[in-house]
Design brief:
Layout lengths: L5 H9 L3 E3 L11 E3 L1 H19 L4 E4 L7 H6 L2 H4 L1 E6 L6 E3 L19 E4 L3 E3 L9 E3 L5 H6 L1 H7 L6 E10 L14 E11 L4 H18 L7 E5 L11 E9 L2 E12 L1 H10 L5 E3 L4 E3 L2 E8 H12 E6 L2 E6 L10 E5 L4 H14 L5 E3 L5 H11 L3 E5 L1 H6 L1 E6 L5 E5 H12 L2
Parallel strand pairs: 3-9, 19-20, 19-21
Antiparallel strand pairs: 1-2, 4-5, 4-6, 7-8, 9-10, 10-16, 11-12, 12-13, 13-16, 14-15, 17-18, 21-22, 22-23
Helix pairs in contact: 2-9
The structure holds adenosine-5'-triphosphate.
Amino acid sequence: MLKDLSPLVSLCKRRGYIFPSSEIYGGLAACWDYGPLGVQFKMNVKQCWWKEMTHRQDIVGLDSSILMHPKVWKASGHVDEFSDPLVDCRDCRFRFRLEEKIKTCPHCGSKNLTEPREFNLMFKTHAGPVEEEASQVYLRPETAQGIYVNFLNVQSSMRKKIPFGIAQIGKAFRNEITVGNFIFRCREFGQMEMQYFVHPEKASEFFEYWKEQRKKFLLDVGLPEKSLRVHEHGKNELAHYAHKAVDFEFLFPMGWKELEGIHHRGDFDLKQHQKWSGKKLSYFDADRGETYLPYVIETSIGLDRLILSLLCSAYREEKVKEETRVLLALNFRLAPIQVAVLPLSKKSQLKELAEKISGSLMKKWRVEQDESGSIGKRYRRQDEIGTPFCVTIDFDSLEDNKVTVRHRDTMRQDRLSVNHLEKYLIDRLST
Ligand code: ATP
């Protein structure tokens, strides 16, 4: 178990997972760039969620725009209510978000603080060439609103019947006051949200259903059960429109923190958009012979936060012959590289055989051929980036057409014929 994030942050930088944004200019707080392995890992996580959500009859996808009509954010409450109380320390001028626990300046300990002022978390910008109030738009602080405003477009174009859901993956932006903890809280981050539209009488039932489904998913992608817990929102925590809400919390090195929220939002969102747009958003249920505004059950998870929880769960340090072996025990499906092909030397015959093998494995899996450095160093690198299997080609391979397969998690080595390699990997990588 990781005690703090620093070894993971440095592994991510060293091995091409995640870099600080604009690093050569000194970086930009709470913004991160995904390197070649990070972007592949992220793509795999997105695909896993997308498949889980949309490979079923009752959920369809959407990709709505980041910039939306400014009234959307009036209707949703974000213009008036999406804010944090901000406090300044009069002694050291440190500015921070007021939380109940904090009564003194976290920087210098002074109690000489200003009254809290509300600070809106939405990023503002302008659409068009004139920077005037009428052209002001916002970068969306959540992806959900794009789903609500398209509820009828999707329902009618896809001929969907209630209950059905709309899933979306996209960027969201929040001008967070307190940032840090690597990619846990960013100002630009990915969200994976699904809004499920139901008959009001069925809402509680579907809330329970989605709680179960989401827990199964989180375990399935590789989070250990002991690092997950459910936090039910008490009356004081609930958003004013929410009927019920739970968070899945994950045990990060900095403690238990929210990873995903499941929210029973009633008809608040559709009602608000109906009011502000003047367009009817109700649904005629032919089976019930009834017209109504559907209720919404939302599942909302931060993509970067899920990535952080997966990396934290996968990070291991082991003592092997007086040395420390670092590995990322990632789910085989999610690992950015699934098979590394390593010719023992740069001799052309070994390289040719390696190319033939990697070319054929590449048709099925994400494969990297690595020829430089000692074999020990190459294994170390593959362990650190989480590659489940290394296929080593040595001089005997040229004679007996056999290769050595090394397992990431156990370091076990199996010698087998090249002809059996594909089947061997299918048996292990498809589980
Ligand atoms: P928090 O209490 O951590 O600020 P929230 O309750 O405001 O989160 P939601 O608005 O419910 O979060 O957003 C849904 C999900 O989006 C969260 O569960 C989290 O995983 C993710 N998320 C929210 N804010 C950020 C952020 N600044 N950086 C990364 N992920 C975030």
